[in-house]
Structure formats: structure tokens, C-alpha cells
Amino acid sequence: MESATVVLYPSPGIGHLVSMVELGKLIHTHHPSLSLIIIITPAPTENGSTDKYIKTVSATISSIMFHQLPTIAIPPDFSSDIIGLNFGIPELYNPIFHNALVAIMEKSIIKAVILDFFTDAAFQVSKSLDLPTYYFYTGGASGLCVFLHLPTINSITFDSIKDQNFYFDVPGVPPIHSSHFPPHLVDNKSSTYKNFINTARNMAKSSGIIANTFIGFEEIAVATLRDGKCIPDGRTPPTYFIGPLIAGGNQMDPSENECLKWLNSQPIKSVVFLCFGSMGVFKKEQLKEIAIGLERSEQRFLWVVRDPPDELNSGGKEVGLDAILPEGFLARTGDKGLVVKNWAPQPAILSHESVGGFVSHCGWNSVLEAVVAGVPMVAWPLYAEQKMNRVYLVEEMKVAVAVDMSSDGFVTATAVEEKVKELMQGEEGKVVREQILEMSRRAKAATRDGGSSRIEFFKLTHSWTAV
Hints:
Blueprint: E1 4-9, H1 14-30, E2 34-40, H2 49-60, E3 64-68, H3 82-92, H4 94-105, E4 109-116, H5 123-128, E5 133-137, H6 141-156, E6 167-168, E7 176-177, H7 191-205, E8 208-211, H8 219-226, E9 239-241, H9 258-263, E10 271-275, H10 284-297, E11 300-305, H11 321-324, H12 329-333, E12 337-341, H13 346-350, E13 355-360, H14 364-373, E14 377-379, H15 386-396, E15 400-402, H16 413-425, H17 427-446, H18 452-465
Helix pairs in contact: 1-2, 6-7, 6-8, 10-16, 14-17, 16-17
């Protein structure tokens, strides 16, 4: 009998890659007879994290094979915008991707090709080879409602979203104000906007959509997708809610990491953790406001700080914390706070019993990590779809409180102080603290044998394993 293979084609950005690898691990765990090949294009901007991550996975899970496509020349007039690159590079690679699939088909039966929405250009390749093609949406069901509804919004609005000042009624989610849409979705004349619209249309034609969420977390959005209401004038493909898929990391030795050692000495549920993702960089003025707000709040805190933009980091030299933060801050807060530079083991920290709150940029991977750990959030969105995530988390799922922000995203020390105290001690925070514990319970139940996410997963893979 010929071997069977599932091909995964993620965007090389670390946030998308990790989720796709976790999907591959899940497939391998339950269907070890399926071969897994993850196709990798060179990242448009490389900081070393992608290569390091791939090497780590390859060394620990030999059953997942990474196929690195060769580097090709990027045309000089090619888009320099990161989103444009994420969409455009896979299109340049379509001939090479086609040859890679053909080579795999000579040795095995491809049961499924799974695309990231940024690798949408490959849809025409896999369909030309008559291969079952799925999309892995790395966000949740609420975000998927908006994404699939984009062509409808496009067909009924002549003006760009950026030129409007009202709330859009999207099936399955609370009203979304025009200012909450990601920057790359607000100009209907841009090529990036058109790429997203085309991707949403192709997703509607696919064999199915896989979403990194679980039914009990986004019940209204899930029901809306199942009822086909997000694509009112066409077919909604089968949609599978198989999350939460999050990277491990709780195995770290607490005696080896500064953050975990410090947390071991703190009271249960007493620490607010502040971490804003791999791209969460603030100017010095904003760092100062955060510091003042934390100090005034009198809450215990663990804060991950990245160097401010280039004006403080010229010559590539790392800036010391004393040069970034207000004078005397570290000394004054040393009895109840810890500030670390650049990185901390987020999954292990969120699962530590001393952590009682999380100030987050609302990236979906971070959201799921917090939900599984049962840690309530202060929602502080920075970029991409995170302002929309804040709407879902605060208004629909009620697992976060929203920090007050100016129109340009600036947050004052007073706002930091108020929301941190509210999350940890206030009445609104109490509702959120109780709700996140319920969602944590549901998340764990969903991923057990017989849970909703496992049932969804086996529906997805049934045709891949049928003889």
C-alpha cells in the first residue's frame, strides 16, 4: 500500500509557523502512519528565530520533515511592505512549490495540502493538481467570521474602511468600528487589501478551514460559521475547531530561569505579567508611563521590556534598563517587581501559580496560552488584527478588561494603574477572573479524549486515513 502524506505550507513568520507545527504534532500523535512535510520559504525578514525553531523541532520530532525551498531572487520593484512580502513571496515560489508537490506525489499519496492564509497563492497550484486543499486559520472563530465576511463588506461599501466612521455589523461578533480594522484592511485600493479579499474567496472554495480555537470559547461565532451566515451569497466550507493549539514550554527547570525563580517566592495569584510579543516595542515615553503606572498600582509585577526604537539603540548596542526606565524605578520597586530584557518563557510564566494577571497585546497565541492557564487579561492591542481581538475578548468572551488608549495608541500611567488594579482587585476584574477560570476548564476538556476539539479533529482527518 502506498504511503500517505499531509503537506503543510505555513507562512514563515514565527507566530504562524509555531501554530502550523503544533497542528503537525497533533496529526502525528493521532495518525503516526501519515507522513508530514512542512514546506518552508525563506522568511522575508529573518531574525534567526525561525531557523533556530526549525532546528529544535527537527531534532526532537524526527517524524516531521521540513522541506526548505531554495532562495530565489526577489525582483527589485517588489513590495517592501511586510504584509505584501508575506503574500507576494509564495506567489513567486508557485513554480517551485508545484515541482515539490509533484516530487512528493511520485512517492506518496497526498491526502491534504494545508495552507496558511499568507500562502494563499499556492491554492491555484494544489487545485491544479486536484489535491484536497485546506486553510489553517491561526486565529479564532470570531476573527474567521470577519475574514470570511470581507468580500461581502467589499461588495456593499464603495469607500475604503479608513474613510468611514461607523460600526460594521459582522455576523457572529460584536459590532466592529472602522478604527478597529487592521491597517492593511482599510484601503480598498491597496494590493494588500485585494490579497486578503482573494484569500477569503479562495478559503470559501477550499475543502475545509481549520481554526485554532475551541467551541466552548467562541460559541456564537462557531454557530454563525456553521450556519453559513458569514458568506451570505455562497458556500461555507466545513470548518473544524481543533484548538487550543499552543507550544509547550512548561518543562523549563524553575531553578534555571530568573523569572521562574523569582515567581517561586511570590504569593499565589499576586503577580501581573506584562509581555507584548516578539514585535511589542515601545518608545521611551511609553515605557516611562508603564513604569509609573505599575509603581502607583502597588501590584507585584513581572515585566518583559524590549529596547525602544532606533533613537535609543544606535549602533546595535543593547540599552541597559536604567537608561530606559525612570530614574530610581528599579530600586524603588525591587521588593515587588522584576523587569527582564527582551524575552521570558511565557507559557511557563502564565502557568505559574503566582501569576494572577496578564497585560497582553492580544496576539492569538498569547490569548490561548492565557486561557489555558486561566489568567485574566488587560487587553492592550498593538498591531495586525489585535484591536478586533480586544473587542471579542472584552465584549464577547469577557476574559479581559480593555486599557484606555488615545487614538494613536498611547496609554497613560493613570490608565495602566487603573486597569492593573481593576484586573487584580476590582469588581469588573472579578467577573473576568471568574470567567477565565471557566474558559480554562473548557479548554482542557475540549482537548481530552472525547472532547469537542478531538471530535472535530477526527472529523477533519477521517478522509485522510480512510483506506
